[in-house]
């Protein structure tokens, strides 16, 4: 089984970062806009559409407010096994987001690792903009 761990420092309070992470139906508007283009909730799952066109069904396993930890599993897509976890830690004046994915088959690891890096870059950009009070492009007045 491949296990991938990626992390990023975000210049935003952990409360702000966690609030966006735990909003499981708003990946495309709050957490990783641009990387994810749509998120729909269906029961205990979310249907996620990535900018690449890839669509996956993810079952939400746990939203742990005390630990600031979200766990999900891809249940309909290419991996035969996938478990993901994103945890938010206070670090200095900001936050550290740690994303871990365990998956099979091993051959998917490079592609999934690249997607995780893109996702963390989108997360950092979106949350640092929010922390700075910069409005999202869709909410700007003309």
How far is the first residue's CA from the last residue's CA?
50 Å
Low-confidence stretches: 138-142
Global shape: globular
CATH topology, what is it called?
Alpha-D-Glucose-1,6-Bisphosphate, Chain A, domain 4
SSE blueprint:
Blueprint lengths: L1 E9 L3 H9 L4 H5 L4 E7 L2 E6 L4 E10 L4 E8 L4 E11 L2 E11 L4 H23 L11
Antiparallel strand pairs: 1-7, 2-3, 3-4, 4-5, 5-6, 6-7
Explained architecture:
The chain has 142 residues and is an alpha+beta fold. It has one domain (2-130): Alpha-D-Glucose-1,6-Bisphosphate, Chain A, domain 4. The protein has three helices and seven strands. It has a seven-stranded antiparallel β-sheet with strand order 1-7-6-5-4-3-2. It starts with a strand and ends in an 11-residue tail after the last helix.
Which labels suit this protein?
Alpha-D-Glucose-1,6-Bisphosphate, Chain A, domain 4; 3 helices; disordered C terminus; alpha+beta; 142 residues; seven-stranded antiparallel sheet; 26% helix; globular
What's the gist of this structure?
This is Polyketide cyclase / dehydrase and lipid transport. The protein is an alpha+beta fold.
